[in-house]
Amino acid sequence: MTVKKIESTKKLNFRVDYNRMTVYYTNMRYKDNSKKEAIYQATILLLNKDGFSATPMSKIAKHAGVSPSTIYVYFENKDDMLKKLYLDTKQKMGAKMFADTDGMDIKASLAKVIRNYIDYIRENKEAFLFLQQFTNSPYMSELDDQEANNYFTPMYQLVKRGRQEGVFKNVDDDVLFAYIEPPITEAAKRYFRGEFEFTDVRIKSLIELAWSAIKK
Amino acid sequence: MTVKKIESTKKLNFRVDYNRMTVYYTNMRYKDNSKKEAIYQATILLLNKDGFSATPMSKIAKHAGVSPSTIYVYFENKDDMLKKLYLDTKQKMGAKMFADTDGMDIKASLAKVIRNYIDYIRENKEAFLFLQQFTNSPYMSELDDQEANNYFTPMYQLVKRGRQEGVFKNVDDDVLFAYIEPPITEAAKRYFRGEFEFTDVRIKSLIELAWSAIKK
Amino acid sequence: MTVKKIESTKKLNFRVDYNRMTVYYTNMRYKDNSKKEAIYQATILLLNKDGFSATPMSKIAKHAGVSPSTIYVYFENKDDMLKKLYLDTKQKMGAKMFADTDGMDIKASLAKVIRNYIDYIRENKEAFLFLQQFTNSPYMSELDDQEANNYFTPMYQLVKRGRQEGVFKNVDDDVLFAYIEPPITEAAKRYFRGEFEFTDVRIKSLIELAWSAIKK
Amino acid sequence: MTVKKIESTKKLNFRVDYNRMTVYYTNMRYKDNSKKEAIYQATILLLNKDGFSATPMSKIAKHAGVSPSTIYVYFENKDDMLKKLYLDTKQKMGAKMFADTDGMDIKASLAKVIRNYIDYIRENKEAFLFLQQFTNSPYMSELDDQEANNYFTPMYQLVKRGRQEGVFKNVDDDVLFAYIEPPITEAAKRYFRGEFEFTDVRIKSLIELAWSAIKK
DNA sequence: CATGAATGAGTCTTCATTCAT
DNA sequence: GATGAATGAAGACTCATTCAT
């Protein structure tokens, strides 16, 4: 029956209404975005390490430094969280990928996209691997992919522009796409397996081969 | 003094050599290989439909028409089964991919490999998708990849030969590889999502772009 | 400006000190100790009735009136629970056994210990039988017995004192011990098998024979 | 479809009747006692090492060098085997314990029994520990103890004789018994835990204390 | 908003026993 | 008599989620 003092760090942040004997919260920004982010980071890390079937919510919570039930404050359920995480991650990747690619000619623009992509990969190992795992899992088909695809419209526009300018081979867009991103993605996977290095020379080669493939 | 065959009902199947007074068994395999195969097929199907985290052994057993415990007669545990399934599947794919590719010049040989690969993909949708999911999951890193890689030595030899003949760009093997298989794989994924058709024209295009990419 | 108690329904139970604006909790134990105790009782009962190999966690849970998973809130696993239960039980027995034995001469003190032990046995049939079963099982050797032994230091001290006073035969402590507790334990086993009664006469006899055995 | 030669060690031991085309066994002593013994030994060992709840039939079979189903040739089921093993073991112990104890006076006879018991213990560690574990488990109460008790009638006779000769204290038989065997058993347990040595001196002490306890 | 306890519904795996030879 | 394969039933344990505060 001991009385223990609670540390009053971040969590105790309320006022007491002496009259009504009820407790209010001072800080009205209820949903704490840093917690959400912590949950996302923990999920990505654990998913890459242990896979979908060995990543329980409780583990995620522990790594994120929150209670399991807190996750349910931010997300409806595990699937909901996973899908939102995917969309969030994919969107961030898209943003990086097409940054600063305007106002260049097609070839330079494409080279820039590839370099951006490689930069993103190198700076976001876990995010990249998570995207790969998710994309190749049946979770993907449950998703309304439209939203994810929107993040990549710049790529479609790029190809469209190239076609208009007559610099690409006369093949379907899908065929062109297949020789732009997938080879880089493959190289990245080898990179993270320790089998490949993104040296300047190799990056140039990758860009060169992509261009050779698609250019008329 | 001949060797007579004793009537056997189903599994016992031996002959007695009266001279030597020793017993030989024909077909020592008491374990029924068809059960193993049924387990494999069920696993692939369910894994593609529901993913790693929603494919319990009980479901696999039910689909395979065996008892859950029977799976453990053939495999140590779930992981063991998954890994053996992967290796088995990968090996079969490798065999198909490099069939009938000898005695051609490099370009034709490469085209044949691509066509073989596309044929395999179209005839083995589930196997292909399973390989993708597995490859992009953390299960992969638990695996001694050497064994899986052996199934693809013909590809390495092909590239090596091309390099000796001086027909490829002067870039690393890994860069070359990245423009041969990954684009096809990507197209296949779109194909199974219903976004792409493997028409003759498109297959030719894919081959053409691969060649454009890697040839000097 | 006093300290007022906020009405609590069941578990939350805190007071607010309006001056210091800090919150104290009374009774931090959110985990309900009565559940733990119920689990212990159920385990002992079932173990005595059915043995180690026929006492599943599910049965224990049912008898304790909790969910099987609740047991894992309190214990790491079955072994952990069993060991903690043993230690807990042994400690309680030790406490009873050596209660009110100070300030007597050796002979009286020893008689008191024996009487205490018999009292404990009669009042704690299930606990006693559980201890016997556990002690004679391989679980015992997995245990760091040191902790269990600590509960019996009074016995060692008693023997040590008797030796100093020169009232015991000149034999090893272990030999002395063997003629104090084991005969009582054996009688108790017969008692619970319905083959023996702890009458006053018999209790006196048991004490007398123990003393005859060890006294010089 | 390969033909494999089977090693013809111990198992192939039959004649072939060429006319009837059927196979007979030469060795007509069907139940192979050595197998039963091997099963017993394996069971005792594993039970002492792992306990009742962690000793599956399959493990016993493996240790005994037989197939699991072979155990069912000799015993109805696991319980049946365990009980027969207990009775068999207890009987063997009883036989050793009362060997060569005739024609001595009470005191010598009792000393001999104790020495026999200690000899048995030292030569049959595993059997002894198994008996302890079994005796203190609920398996015991399922047993018709009468059979087991019969092996110990010599002890009852000994006590009866002593009482007739007027050398024992005037207490119940059960009280006397309690100071004969249990102390030795306790010492034995300590012995196997490495806490006690059966030196000549200690054995003499044990006998001396037993006699002090029970003699008038 | 945040949380620790609690749990029902599963999950993987084991195992005593039977079956077919 | 002996056996390896097969399995139904059960066991320990997990986990997404909810509850009560």
From TrEMBL, chains A, B, C, D:
<dbReference type="InterPro" id="IPR054422">
    <property type="entry name" value="TetR-like_HI_0893_C"/>
</dbReference>
<dbReference type="InterPro" id="IPR036271">
    <property type="entry name" value="Tet_transcr_reg_TetR-rel_C_sf"/>
</dbReference>
<dbReference type="Pfam" id="PF00440">
    <property type="entry name" value="TetR_N"/>
</dbReference>
<feature type="DNA-binding region" description="H-T-H motif">
    <location>
        <begin position="56"/>
        <end position="75"/>
    </location>
</feature>
<keyword id="KW-0238">DNA-binding</keyword>
<dbReference type="InterPro" id="IPR009057">
    <property type="entry name" value="Homeodomain-like_sf"/>
</dbReference>
<protein>
    <recommendedName>
        <fullName>HTH tetR-type domain-containing protein</fullName>
    </recommendedName>
</protein>
<feature type="domain" description="HTH tetR-type">
    <location>
        <begin position="33"/>
        <end position="93"/>
    </location>
</feature>
<dbReference type="InterPro" id="IPR050624">
    <property type="entry name" value="HTH-type_Tx_Regulator"/>
</dbReference>
<dbReference type="Pfam" id="PF22604">
    <property type="entry name" value="TetR_HI_0893_C"/>
</dbReference>
<dbReference type="InterPro" id="IPR001647">
    <property type="entry name" value="HTH_TetR"/>
</dbReference>
